[in-house]
């Protein structure tokens, strides 16, 4: 009769310092993948969007190969749960859930807007004890995904949960708010966001995968791992199943936005 397999994953290596974590996010046009183990960390920032569904797993295996690791070595899998592009969120959640089920390890759901906030913090105030930022990401169709976050006492607080805003509604919420503003909506909509001139702006991300990895490590250290069945996306639009005409309208709006001057 075969002996039971020895414990693996989080049960075998509970220490945060020795955790082996895989993290990825495909909620935007950039795909972020990161890996950390006691002997190092590896990151990849690659084209995402429609490419993510085909590119994510090969990128994961490439990072594992660079680290000399196998999937079975992982203690937990972190993933960007959204908000963001519908197809990208489905890719991230499906891959996280499938891998975690197969490996018997927990998942760490991470807010995709918080990744932008963490990257902005490192760009603007890496040594500051306090930092506040409104994150606004281009959601297309004249809307933004936005949330407000504060860094204090070495951790993030969510001051305003992620929500879908029209440009007018976001301007009313964020025009005179404290702190910086970060995210792709700055380049997409510019002055139409109605921000006060004195507000600091962080329009582009510097190292999304590195920011993702820091959040994954913090979540693991805080014991935020959950069952693989809870690898679920955060959708903010009222409908996710569109009619043919609606899909055509969305496609036309996206094409127009892509061709507009930035």
UniProtKB/TrEMBL annotation:
This is tRNA (Adenosine(37)-N6)-threonylcarbamoyltransferase complex dimerization subunit type 1 TsaB. Residues 54-188 form the Gcp-like domain. InterPro entries: ATPase_NBD (IPR043129), Gcp-like_dom (IPR000905), T6A_TsaB (IPR022496). It comes from the Bacteria. SUPFAM superfamilies: Actin-like ATPase domain. It holds the Pfam family TsaD.
């Amino acid at each position: 009769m075969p002996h039971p397999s020895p414990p693996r994953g989080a049960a075998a290596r509970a220490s945060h310092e020795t955790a082996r974590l895989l993290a990825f996010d495909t909620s935007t046009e950039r795909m972020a993948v990161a890996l950390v183990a006691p002997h190092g960390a590896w990151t990849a920032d690659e084209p995402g969007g429609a490419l993510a569904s085909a590119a994510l797993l090969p990128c994961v295996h490439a990072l594992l190969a660079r680290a000399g690791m196998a999937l079975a070595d992982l203690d937990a899998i972190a993933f960007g749960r959204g908000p963001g592009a519908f197809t990208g969120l489905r890719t991230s959640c499906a891959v996280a859930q499938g891998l975690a089920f197969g490996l018997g390890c927990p998942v760490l759901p991470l807010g995709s807007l918080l990744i932008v906030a963490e990257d902005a913090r490192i760009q603007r105030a890496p040594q500051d004890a306090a930092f506040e930022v409104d994150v606004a990401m281009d959601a297309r169709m004249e809307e933004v995904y936005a949330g407000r976050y504060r860094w204090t006492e070495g951790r993030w607080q969510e001051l305003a949960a992620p929500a879908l805003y029209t440009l007018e509604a976001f301007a009313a919420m964020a025009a005179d708010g404290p702190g910086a503003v970060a995210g792709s909506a700055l380049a997409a909509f510019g002055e139409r966001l109605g921000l006060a001139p004195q507000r600091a702006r962080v329009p582009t991300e510097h190292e999304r995968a590195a920011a993702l990895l820091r959040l994954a490590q913090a979540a693991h250290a805080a014991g935020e791992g959950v069952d693989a069945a809870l690898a679920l996306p955060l959708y903010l639009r009222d409908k996710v199943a569109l009619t043919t005409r609606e899909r055509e309208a969305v496609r036309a709006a996206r094409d127009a936005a892509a061709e507009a001057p930035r």
